[in-house]
Amino acid sequence: MSPTTSNAANGIAPGRLSAEQLGCNFADVAPPLSANAAVIAADRCHYCYDAPCVNACPTGIDIPGFIRKIGNGNLKGAARDILGANPLGGMCARVCPTEILCEGACVRNHQDGEPVQIGALQRHATDFQMAREAAGAPALFKRASETGRRVAVVGAGPAGLACAHTLALAGHRVSVFDAGKHPGGLNEYGIAAYKTVDGYAQREVRWLLSVGGIELRQGQRLGHDVTLTELRAAYDAVFIGVGLGGTHKLCIEGELLDGVLDAVDFIARVREADDLSSVPVGRQVVVLGGGNTAIDAAVQSRKLGAQQVTLAYRRGAAQMSATGAEQEFARSQGVVLAEWMKPLRIVGDTQLRAVEFERTQLDMSGALRGTGELVRVEADMVLKAIGQTLLPEGLDGLQLTEGGRVAVDANGATSVAGVFAGGDCAGHGATDLTVQAVQDGKLAAHAIDRFLANQSARAA
Predict the structure, then answer these.
(1) Which of 173, 204, 225, 396 is 20 to 30 A from 99, comparing alpha carbons?
(2) Res. 6 pLDDT band, cuts 50 70 90
(3) CATH code, 150-245+390-459
(4) What global pTM score does this model have?
């Protein structure tokens, strides 16, 4: 079913709400701090030595340092601290689960139960600097002298962009190959629209590319339009950051019925829509899964006008990969979280009618078991958010992990010399977060820089 097609028989249709209602529903879920509010928020920071918030940040941003600068009115310096460690610091300020990272580690939690607003302060500083540069102010960073070395980056998601930016600053020339219409990866296509409003993902990409030395090549899919062999021959090093392009199957009856969609595709439709009233949604939506993608799909279904949205997960809330804050937000938006529900079949003939579940529980050994109790949830639309997989196209010759991702060492080096990888496609074992992907790309860029230096030394 195309993004603009309705299926009235299934109850799936666009335009369930007025433009005014949709505008309100998809407004910025966390509006920016005012200048005065930012100073007040910064004043709550203790500027801890060996700050636990820094240790909790995958990119190691000097959080007390940038907050002190905000308090002193030095927003440019604060932005430098942030973006020097995390070139996608503006997006991470919007989408990071700060409640389990920096803010979760804040010592203020043990004093008054309220952490410093680290994410909001980070956004305040990065938004300030990006607006300055958009208005013609000098760039925050300057490239080193040209090295004459060329690196291919495959994938313009968080890992690839962070890698490209770090390599460009080191003086290398970078070509970024991406299959999508727009760069950004999941930042552009996979995050709820109410978290990144006003085209922020593309504004951040434009800022990142403005450092120079980076060429963007869109519509280039690895294994189809360009091969790894060709890239290795044409460039001095290659970074793979293709993300996870495949989705898991339910392997149950009714999965192919009209109205059963992948949640990632649904989220992308919402993000790409010029007119939200053109996006079709069901009256009764069932979302299958327990991660952030499931939450985003469920909440956006409600915001588009679905009357009933049920998010069903085969285990309990404590086992969901979606954070407690995300779960509570979904409830506040009217989403019903149904725990211990394993989908057995999707019911329908000419149209989708319901999802049948079996209730589950943990046995004495901790294994998940069915109880035999069946539950039927009426539905005219089902969104699958049960995880994504690596599409191995174009990765010939690279060793994969047992989990089906590209095998890498701590610096992102793969089994093939001169080829590195990071982000969701890589088997680094870390949580699949934007901020972790950024760190993967950054670390791989440093490793590539060392690799190129060694190559030059050997050739001398």
Answers:
(1) 204
(2) very low
(3) 3.50.50.60
(4) 0.93
